[in-house]
Write a structure and sequence with these properties.
Elements: E1 11-17, H1 28-38, E2 39-48, E3 53-58, E4 68-73, H2 75-84
Parallel strand pairs: 1-2
Antiparallel strand pairs: 3-4
């Protein structure tokens, strides 16, 4: 997600449901910037995310030698990343 295979200004919406949690925290802003780049003017982004601040990994995910990572930036950082790349929050829900 840090380098989307799409041209700039080509999509009307981006939906990321709990997928950012599998990107290292340090790259969350880069991912949100990618979302911003591929959106057409007036496009929308829907992101769902854990609002806690934590990191974890599991070395043998699903029995393979693949490491699965989880990374949550916390509520404040999650809210600030879209603003930092020029996106405007129009709605926010807590579940």
């Amino acid at each position: 997600m840090t380098a989307l295979p799409l041209s700039d200004d080509t999509v009307g919406a981006v939906v990321a449901c709990y997928s950012l949690s599998h990107i290292p925290f340090e790259a969350h802003r880069t991912v949100i910037k990618q979302f911003s780049c591929v959106l057409r003017l007036g496009g929308r982004v829907l992101v769902s995310k854990d609002d806690t601040d934590w990191n974890n990994s599991y070395q043998h995910w699903l029995g393979d030698d693949v490491e699965m990572q989880w990374s949550a930036a916390g509520a404040d950082a999650t809210r600030s990343h879209p603003r930092m790349v020029g996106l405007i929050t129009t709605e926010e829900w807590e579940l």
